[in-house]
Amino acid sequence: MSFPLYIAKRYLFTKTSNNAINIITIIASFGVIIGSLALFIILSGFSGLRTFSYSLLEVSDPDLKITAVKGKSFLYTNDVQQNLKNDRSIKVISKVIEERVFLKYKDKNEIAFIKGVEENYNLITQIDSTLHVGNWLDADYTNTAVIGYGISRKLSLGILSFGEPLQIMVPKKGKGFINPQKPFYTTNAQVVGIYSGTQEFENKFVFVSIHQAKNLLRYKENQITGIELKLNPNSDVDAVSEEIQEKLGPTYKVQTKEQLNELYYKVINTENFVSYLIFTLIVIIALFNVIGAIIMMIIDKKDNLRTLFNLGTTLKQIKQIFIFQGFLLTLFGMIIGLSLGTILVLIQKQFEVFMITQSLPYPVEFRITNLCIVIGTITVLGFLASKIASSRISKEFLEK
Predict the structure, then answer these.
(1) Domain boundaries defined on the chain
(2) Average confidence score pLDDT of the chain
(3) 169-202 burial by CB neighbour count: b if 16+ within 10 A, else e?
């Protein structure tokens, strides 16, 4: 063990004759503990929120989505079909039709999007697992629909409301005369299920069969608005996206889940980073107590330091004593804070103590990366604080 480290340990774990310095040291240690604890819990909370938010996107968006660059719809040609079927990274292919529609139920109206899907659509996303009540679309039944919980609430519409069907209307397209008495194409549907999800998602879609959507919009047999893809596990989404884009050419647009929700991902990551900066600032403020405690210790031990200096200890070694002391102080405080933080995170994860709603616990996630971030942050800031405090020691200070 080096001489400066040995003296630093003696100074850290031995009470001084000045009781005020002991109190300041305890306060500094407590500040480091609370700072480390808070920073780790916040990072774990945002990791849990990110995972929870991404799990909601699993039910609303596919791994990859192909749309037309120009226009709303395109033809699903044999060339496109073969290019997708020959790609071994693709597990499931499903054609979809999306269009903004006007909904009417009894005396209530709402604007939403119709989404016509094939029978295998529940293999693309986990939409059927989010059903609030009812069932997913069944090919054995025609003119049925699954709506979002937000739409259901706005229209006061439950499942199997056989008294009056949900009317789905879209404006007639084309040039020339349009009968003002019948400006919409209309189809009726019985609601068989209500799904939940993000607020935007559950207020957006009415799911129907792709055949019903084609009939409503007067589309051709192979006319669609998009192709949604489910990739095999461990596939590189970005690489597959670039490969498909190259095969299909510039008339098609291939987007990943991140690109479809670019703003959503940016908001989550920005909030996480800003929270990290805020709580790092709190840690920095707490470390001012460490600087104060070390400076007080330097003043209190001035006579001892002068003796060590006269016995041949170099000025650099004397500075190292207090660098080690401050570093050990922050290190032990960080260990205690992280231990408490880990225990609290695991308790919340296991026993769901804190709840957002009666059925939804606050999501947290224990990650080694969060531990490394906190350790790196506290270690660097603790070293800088110790360095700043020890810089007060000079030859003139020791000789006075």
Answers:
(1) 3-57+264-399, 62-257
(2) 90
(3) bbeeeeeeeeeeeeebbebebbbbbbbbbbeebb
